[in-house]
Amino acid sequence: MDDRLLFTDAPAVPAADETEAALVRLWEEALQVRPIGREDNFFELGGTSMLAVRICAGVERVTGTRPSVRELFDADTLADFALHIGAPAPGRVLVTAA
Question: By residue range, what is the domain housing residue 27?
Fold first, then answer.
């Protein structure tokens, strides 16, 4: 049984900015869990390496910047990941609009 279902009355901490709001939408779609808040942990919500790849591709679609799966593994709460993808990282591919 998913422990999160036992706490549906507990409100999720809302997104602090547009980056976090975009991640909430991506995580909710990929994980099929609602609501997701900024302090939620990707892996505790059922995240897998395959879903991490999907999340990173979604981030690229939204921001033009593709984080590595390792970045999600290193910063596994939504708020930490939002901070992580907002900072320049070595090896990150930045896609510019033509």
Answer: 9-94
Closest CA to 22 of 51, 53, 61: 61
Domain-embedded: residue 39:
yes
Number of folded domains in the chain? 1
Round to whole Å and give the CA distance between 20 and 59: 11
Amino acid at residue number 73: F
**Span 39-79, pLDDT tens digits:** 999 999 999 999 999 999 999 998 888 999 999 999 989 99
Provide the whole-model pTM.
0.77
CA within 13 Å, CB half, 74: 10
User: CB-based contacts of 63: which residues, under 8 Å, 6+ apart?
Assistant: 19, 22, 85
Q: Is 88 helix (H, G, I), strand (E, B) or coil?
A: coil
CATH number for position 30: 1.10.1200.10
